Amino acid sequence: MVDALDLPGLRVIQIHPATLASASEGGRVRRVEVEPTFIPTACPKCQSTRLYRHGLRRQSYADAPHFGEPTVLEVHRRRWRCRDCKTLFPDPLPEMDENRRATGRLIRFVQSRTLEHTFASIGRDVGISDVSVRHIFDDMVRDLERRYRFATPRWLGIDEVKIIGKYRCILTNVEKNTVYDLLDSRVMADLRTYFRQFPNRKDVELFSTDLWNNYATVAKEFFPDAIVVADRFHIQRMGTNGMEAARKAIRKGLTRKVRLQLKDERHVMLKHGSRLNDRGREILGAIHRDFPSLALAWRCKERFFAIWEQTDRQSASEAMDAWIASVPPEMAVFFKEALSALATRRNHILNYFDHRITNAYTESINRLAKSINRMGRGYSLEVIRAKMLYDTNALKKGTMVERVATPVLDDDAGGLGVGYMTYTTARSVRSRVRYDTRLVCYGAHIPTLCDKLEAGAFEDQPAGIQLPNTCSSNCALQNGN
Questions:
Q1: What whole-number distance in Å separates Cα of residue 463 and Cα of residue 106?
Q2: In the chain, how many domains are there?
Q3: Separation in Å, CA 113 to CA 117, 157, 368, 395, 464
């Protein structure tokens, strides 16, 4: 019986056929009556061996599914009293989680699926409420946060994503294409509280950001040695915004048919001219012929895009000056956002031509977070954050083996060997360096998360429990692990 149940310290008394559960549990539930096999010999408080039986209670513990059906263990649990200190205590159950009223293997079973499936689907499969699944998940996240300490990025990306009706701050490792953290807010007070505790701030060399003022303040206060690089795609978007503003400005005087036609063809005006096909160039030519003001706005947009085709900082700076001078007064109102950015954040924008990094992957994270929330039908931010940061496959891709150099004194090295090299310091003192390898986790790999999203891994679907359904007798239970 013990081997059939596969829980040490418990013996099967009786196995009941699976029956319909209560309305709160749903589905069918298999019930198994068990009793502890271990008899305590000493009081846990005073260590006295003078014990006697003091009644028996039946307690129910949820177990991992057997035969693909939820299982409940009904434990015939004895109580014991110490004759000396009068302490009352029950039979020990080492494989049980007393707080969750569940077996340890059920807890592990649920935890292994919470990052892949919705809480509701897991609860249906194991016969517990989705609230209980959430509590198990919370315990697991606290444990993961203790176990994983992501290495501080050399290239730190900061941006915002809108989740559950509010803008949140997302941090990425631009160099390694990983998610570093997801913060509840982008309000300055919250950012200051977070970055005061940010580890190894001096290790951040590049700080990639959009033009949100709070992020520039964060860089100045907490990363004074880092080079701030304005994200190229956020700046280029200002050019397309100017083109759109010009198109919308002229629509009031047009017929409904022409307005709708311009709206349908706006993608031609927004696309870079070099990427248009023959049909696109034909449509663009017709627009320019009929609407000279749109032709002027389009040329302003194209010259703005051309700034990022420069190969070095100096030529980019000259291209910026040329573009500012070329914007006609009647177009300045449409491109005021771009003109303001080049005036107030010019140095940060030009830093891109020395350090070509962007926050491009952050846009994928924005879509990923929204999709997880939609598929989970109302997850909290904490759940979305954990599903992104602690996905098993994404963490594996974001963990790398690196060599670390450790200086070693001559007396400690004991002679040169494999993994050592010699060098001479500024004081001409002969020393040695030992190279060790270590695993470094940089966070959840963004492309892996995106691939899982495309494959539908975060959709609300059954957890897919596949357990054998064969047995030689009524007592042959399958291990739920």
A1: 14
A2: 2
A3: 6, 30, 19, 16, 10
CB 61 within 8 A of CB 104: no
Is residue 237 very low, low, confident or very high in pLDDT (cuts 50, 70, 90)? Answer: very high
Q: What is the mean pLDDT of the chain?
A: 82
Residue 27 has pLDDT above 80, yes or no: no
Residue 276's contacts (CB-CB under 8 Å, 6 or more residues apart) are 268, 284
Give dist(CA 159, CA 367) in Å, integer: 13
Which domain-ending residue is among 124, 145, 166? 145
8 A C-beta contact, residue 427 and residue 397: no
Question: Does residue 358 contact residue 231 with C-beta atoms inside 8 Å?
Answer: yes
Instruction: Report the distance separating Cα 224 and Cα 236, nearest Å.
Output: 26
Please indicate, yes or no, whether residues 117 and 238 belong to a single structural domain of this protein.
no
Asked if residue 408 has pLDDT above 50, the reply is yes
Q: What is the pLDDT of residues 136-176, one digit of tens each?
A: 988 888 888 888 889 999 999 998 888 878 889 999 999 99
Q: Look at residues 353, 381, 402 and tell me which one is the last residue of a structural domain.
A: 353
Q: How distant, in Å, are the alpha carbons of 48, 194, 387, 395 from that of 138?
A: 39, 21, 12, 19
Instruction: Report the distance separating Cα 160 and Cα 166, nearest Å.
Output: 10
Residue 334 sits in which domain range?
A: 232-353
Length of the chain (residues): 481
Burial bucket for residue 371 (CB in 10 Å: 0-12, 13-18, 19+): middle
Tell me, yes or no, whether 13 lies in a domain: yes
d(CA 355, CA 348): 11
The amino acid at residue 456 is G
pTM of the entire structure?
0.72
Residue (of 393, 375, 402, 404) closest to 446 by Cα position: 393
For the chain, the maximum distance between any two Cα atoms, rounded to a whole number of angstroms, is 103
* Identity of residue 95: E
